[in-house]
Amino acid sequence: MKVKAIAKYQRVSQRKVDRILDLIREKSVDEATAVLNFLPHSAAKLILNTLKSAVANAINNYKLPKESLRIAECYAGPSTPMKRYRPVSRGRAHPILKRSCHITVVVEDTQ
């Protein structure tokens, strides 16, 4: 059985999150948690929170044992960027996009 958790509108770019997700894809929940705990990136903490939420959903809603869970899918999709403007010469302004993403983690039972 597959159980999903989604963290929406996270203030980190999709590209930075994808780098971390490549490290934990197809691993068991315990291995992925160990990897994420020791990564210095801010995206790792956001992914860890989403993973914990997916595990909690599996345990509380479907009574699945934590030891038998592994990551089936994990991906990040783009979200709406915040638009900011930087003043430049001659009274003009250049746009700055502060990108954000939606993080999805799907865990499944190995039994």
How does this model look, in words?
There is one protein chain. The chain has 111 residues and is an alpha+beta fold. The protein has a single domain, classed as Ribosomal protein L22/L17 (Ribosomal Protein L22, Chain A), CATH 3.90.470. It contains three helices and five strands, in the order βαααββββ. The protein has helices at 14-24, 29-37, 42-62, and strands at 2-10, 69-78, 82-87, 93-98, 101-109. The strands form two sheets. A three-stranded antiparallel sheet has the order 1-5-2. A hairpin with a 5-residue loop joins β3 (82-87) and β4. It is elongated and about 65 Å long. 25% of the residues are buried.
Structural class: alpha+beta
Task: Tell how many strands the DSSP assignment holds.
Answer: 5
Beta fraction of the residues? 35-45%
Q: What's the CATH architecture? A: Alpha-Beta Complex
The helical percent reads 25-40%
CATH fold call:
Ribosomal Protein L22, Chain A
How many domains, in number, for the residues? 1
- N- and C-termini, Cα separation: 9 Å
Can you identify the CATH class?
A: Alpha Beta
What is the ordering of alpha helices and beta strands?
EHHHEEEE
Low-confidence stretches: none
In round numbers, the mean pLDDT is 97
Give a short account of the largest sheet. 3 strands, antiparallel
CATH superfamily: Ribosomal protein L22/L17
Strand order, sheet with most strands: 1-5-2
What does the overall shape look like?
A: elongated
